[in-house]
Amino acid sequence: MASGQTLRRIFESLGVGDLHSDGAVASMPFSADDITAGSESELQAVVCGDKHAVDLPLVIEESNYYANIVRRVAAGDAPRRIVTELERYLNQNASRTWENSWVRFPARLLSPFARETFDGDLLADKRNPLRGARADRARFFCRQAGEEFVRVPISYLLKLSLADLAGSPERLPAALRATGVRLMAHFLNDNSSPETFSFHVIPMRADRGMGRPVARETARRHLLSQLLVMYANRRFGLERHGQRAMVYFAPHPPVRQKQLNDCISDAFYRELLMSPCLSGWDDGEAKQAYMHLCHQALSRSQINGVAKLREAGIIVNNLVVLPNLSNTSLANNGIHISLGSRRMTRALREQAPGFGAAEEKYVGDLAIKIVEHFLPLFVGTYSAAPYRFDFADFHPEKALGFLPHELDYTHLRMIWRRWRGKADLSVLGYAITPFGPPWIDRLVSAVFRLRGDWVVDFRLLDYLAALMSTERSPALDGRLGNGDRLRSDLAALGIFDERMALYQLYRLREFAVMGFSGFEGRYYSLFASLTEDMGRAVDLQALVTALAIKYQVQGRVTHELIPDDPFIESERRQIFFAAAIGLPTFFVRRDTSNRFLQEILKRTTKTRISRRYAGFLRVKLDDYQQALVQLLNEEAADLIEMFGLRETMNDLAERLGDPARNSAAGRLTRGILEEERHDSPMRLNAAEFNAGAESYYRGALRERHMNEGLDGLIEDLRAPIEADLDEETRRALGDHDAARVVAEMRQAVIGDYASEEELRTLIGWTLLSIRRDIGAAERMLDEGSPRLAAASVY
Asked: What number is the average pLDDT over the span 638-655?
């Protein structure tokens, strides 16, 4: 059956009307009243304190690894440099911050319910307690000053902190304890970073501001995380024992974590910095083994990328800097936003005729291919990860990250050439790259004043964001099992592992796996503001997803119009990565067989034939972005009206019109520079700018995100709450003017000097607000389709 006929049959089975009739667009999946959302946040965790009090440096100094390398150096079997670099990491830490360190505190401070929760999570299989404890149970305890201490990562500390409150009648009333117990499952102990996912599914409706409730829920969840870690610092005696745990949004691995990675083995890195997966999985040790597998696979993939750069002609001799055998890319942090369709979910749950897993895959893959053309609108505009490269960092095997596995060689060479032209690497009109030995690179950089470059979103380069298809195994051709076939091909090439989930920029969330049908956007790095950036980003994600469905319903875009060829796939994705680097132009074949891309390029005004690349068009990135906006205003006008997104489109135009002032990348960079008292990222070297970024994320930006959460909480508590207060809750929370109480606590919370009692009260009001939100969302969902499962969990 032809692709257009297949699509027609699929949407007829979903009850979608003829889109050429008035108002029929409302019957589509992902239209108003059909679309739901949820998000997952990954946070950076640090412990502040002296090296003699914090777990990470203590574990390193007490480890067999450290003792063994000291002995090898003393015996002359290893260079002194190995120990020197590790000692420098341990002893030269002016900020006294230890990224992704665990914490340790007296076990007696755990409340009975917190201890019960901890013991349950230490089981080998939570479904079968008869299997007993995990084999590594002893790892989570230590002796200190003759007393038993608990050792856990901060990601798990958040859950223990909530368990301490939720299990204590003297600390929380019964109604709020029940809410706390429910929320515990949303605090994941997965990778290196603390992760949380939405406390409830969010119905997206025009009268509620579409994406604004998603941003509001994320800000409230982030605020609760901040309050729980502060409460743990007091309640579990961390501060008394020289530790102060913190969490905050930060998009890429800290500089010091990369330094540590460079001077230890990959196995020791995993032991120190990767999560034990205590919470979120029945078999935590199996999940931990999976995360170790991911680390090993990505580290191997990084090494194999060097060979691909040689094959591409980018590395032309044997002078390369070999990547470390250990890779830090899994420590990158982003926010994943999932959208679900109630109509599609209901059809799959009820096993409706004509719409099953095969049809979900067929429609989903095509929607992803369409949406990928719009992703350059998001990069830097709504989220970013500003980063500085020095001249010495411009070895292609380091700078290009995972791009050799994500782009065709043609596009890889074009991007590398354009990036070298953009960066400050020129000597007498010729762009040069580092030579290899660090002392030579430093000398050349100093003599010729070569400064390197600044990029918009480093996380998207430092992480394997989107695996490229192979000739025989396209990932998005609409056929069931295509991801399995591609994983098998990539495993044979040494790029990936068959047991890992397939990395994609926009990923289909299949009903059979997730319990709902939809898509997950994985291209968001750091929001300068949850209120201003995240809400608008969700608006635009919903709009382009609905447009992708509309094109299919109308039969205007089929799989054949966007061929499943690795070069065509790379052709559209290169635009996304060019935006992440900040390149002003990209190149497209004049006779590209991607007819959807051709339609977009017809709207560009500055495109011309390339003088350098025969048969290619030279396209300006900002011109392409404006063409996308024009296309949305013309072809999604009915959706914009239905969703009430005219203000969002005006905001998008302002961000693209003056990115330095209005985009997320511009505002984040400005905040970092204000921290360092400079007016340009190129006036700082890479170490200064990137350390300044970490300081800004940990300080001023963290405070901004907390203030946004508090603003939303105060606004919510200004609404009448008497109906939500039973007598026990009223007695426990005290003053009924909740908004005033929270406002008066703001400065103590932001300054991190609120007392344990104040934090307990504020957490109580936060839980009350969350309970109200959950109830309101469930009532809205019950008005129509069956309730959706919570969004976005690995």
From this structure: 96
